[in-house]
Amino acid sequence: MQIELITIGDELLLGFTIDTNAAHIARQLAPLGVEIVRRATVGDDSSVIAAAVSEALARTGAVITTGGLGPTSDDVTRPAIAAVFGRELRLDDEILARITALFESRGYKGPIPPSNIVQAMVPEGAVVLVNRHGTAPGIWLEDDQRRWVAMLPGVPREMRGMLAEELVPRVAALVEGYPVVVRSRTLRSTGIAESAIADKLTTPAEAALARLSVAYLPGADGVDVRLTVRGLASSAADELLAGGAAAVRERLGSGIYGEEEDDLAAVVLELCRSRKWRISVAESCTGGLLGARLTAIPGSSDVVLGGVIAYADDIKASLLGVPPDLLREHGAVSEAVAAAMAAGARDRTGAEVALAITGIAGPGGGSEAKPVGTVWLAMSAGGKTSSLKRIFVGDRGEIRHRAVQFALDMLRRELAEP
Ligand code: AMP
Ligand code: MG
């Protein structure tokens, strides 16, 4: 089944509110085999809403909207779509009773405000989608050709509740008899460029990927490879995805660190735990982000010992024992200093492994020899210290995030060796 989605609200167009509803709905409906084939966002304007809904209905005959069901005058979704179907609005006693009860349960006394009574007005012939999380009811409207529009509230919490409780069962009933799914599986890589991944997966062509769609999704964590199948029964889809995932792992080898929502920090902690290794960190340009990534994972205390935010040269020298000569001779962003930071952190904490990061996160401070984004990363473990230089792209936040991810990946690769 193909559905179009229209999210409604001036705040979405202005960019003040990020449209999280659209993403949530698409993800919730995919397992039913429903494809969101088009998404639009329109403002709180009756004629624009009516036009968008009419066009979408003409294409797919199945439309979901969110927003504009509130009690205020800027909420015009209900009358606008009622007009598309040529229906009048009438007062629904059941909804009014529900809203009255909700007000009473919140300790409100006196008559219900007129603007809330408006929320009990529904188009003739509509099915009411109950809102157990707020006042605005949802509406399901269908014409004699079985074309339908489902209107959900804009408030994400209310929308999610209504979607799960009221809309998903309805859509599931409609697609019964078409037991096909849209299903995805995501493999997470880091340290390999998007183009290199694409080359590895396509030359030579991989049969296991032929019937899948492959998406390359670069981000600050690395590149996620998402495999998707559409239009197959559930078991066939899983089988195809399993074959595809195995092929990607084979081609990309140690570049893959996890699947779905896996966090590289959690992967690293698990690897350390199995070797009984403890970690300490020495951070300059990342100012504690590496420590934060590691300690954000529940249960990290058996692996993480601690670290030093050594931002100033004096602190690199006094707390990590970096020789002042090295700092003077090579500068704080250098192979020698990164290595000395890592060795110092390991020495002073007694950890089995220490990671160090020193770099230029920008926007200022770059030079021809050391442009913004230049970062030296070092790892000290088992008596040896290794360092690597990278030049990361992005703004200050991205450079810092990428540096942390890279440091974690240095350790992962070290631990993954047999
Ligand atoms: P409404 O139902 O149009 O009155 O929307 C109520 C509130 O829900 C708005 O102020 C937004 O903060 C939020 N909202 C509306 N639409 C969306 C959306 N598509 N994604 C996320 N939040 C939304
Ligand atoms: Mg609104």
Task: From the structure above, extract its key features.
elongated, 6-stranded mixed β-sheet, alpha/beta, 15 helices, binds adenosine monophosphate, 418 residues, binds magnesium ion
Helix content: 40-55%
Bound molecules: adenosine monophosphate, magnesium ion
Apparent shape: elongated
- Say how many strands there are: 17
Specify the structural class.
Answer: alpha/beta
How far the N terminus sits from the C terminus, by CA atoms, comes to: 48 Å
Q: How much beta, percentage-wise? A: 15-25%
Low-confidence stretches: none
Q: Summarize the biggest pleated sheet.
A: 6 strands, mixed
What is the typical, i.e. mean, pLDDT?
A: 94
Gyration radius (Cα, Å) is 28 Å
Report the total helices: 15
How would you portray this structure in words?
This protein has 418 residues and is of the alpha/beta class. The protein has helices spanning 10-14, 20-29, 46-60, 77-84, 93-105, 114-118, 156-175, 194-202, 234-252, 264-275, 289-295, 313-320, 324-330, 335-349, 396-416, and strands spanning 2-8, 35-42, 62-66, 89-91, 121-123, 127-129, 138-142, 148-152, 181-189, 213-219, 222-232, 256-259, 279-283, 304-309, 353-359, 374-381, 384-391. A six-stranded mixed sheet has the order 2-1-3-8-7-6, with helices on both faces. A five-stranded mixed sheet has the order 14-13-15-16-17, sandwiched between helices. A four-stranded antiparallel sheet has the order 10-11-9-12. The chain starts with a strand and ends with a helix. The relative contact order is 0.08. The mean pLDDT is 94. Bound molecules: adenosine monophosphate and magnesium ion. Adenosine monophosphate (AMP) binds at residues 7, 9, 11-12, 17, 19-22, 66-70, 75, 153-156. The site of adenosine monophosphate has 19 residues, from helix 1 and helix 2.
